[in-house]
Amino acid sequence: MSRDKKVTVGRRDFLRKVGIGTVGAGATLATPLVGPAQADSETNDEKRKARYKESDHVKAFYRVNRYPAKGG
């Protein structure tokens, strides 16, 4: 007669093992992010250009969130 042993893992043991696994995975994932610094590719004119455009979806956002109308 063979009986299967039921292996139980306590909550704290489980959390320790999961924590160790995430630390190891985090170290592996973070490695490619470390590299040489790169300079900006924008020129001074590109850095100073206007980027904000009050398009229809921006106006809808202002209207839905009850921001006061601009200029009027």
UniProtKB/TrEMBL annotation:
N-terminal signal peptide: none
Residue spans crossing the bilayer: none
Protein name per UniProt: Formate dehydrogenase
InterPro entries: Formate_DH_TAT-contain, TAT_signal, TAT_signal_bac_arc
PROSITE patterns: TAT (PS51318)
Basic and acidic residues composition bias: residue spans: 44-53
Positions of the UniProt region annotated as Disordered: 34-53
Source organism: Bradyrhizobium centrolobii
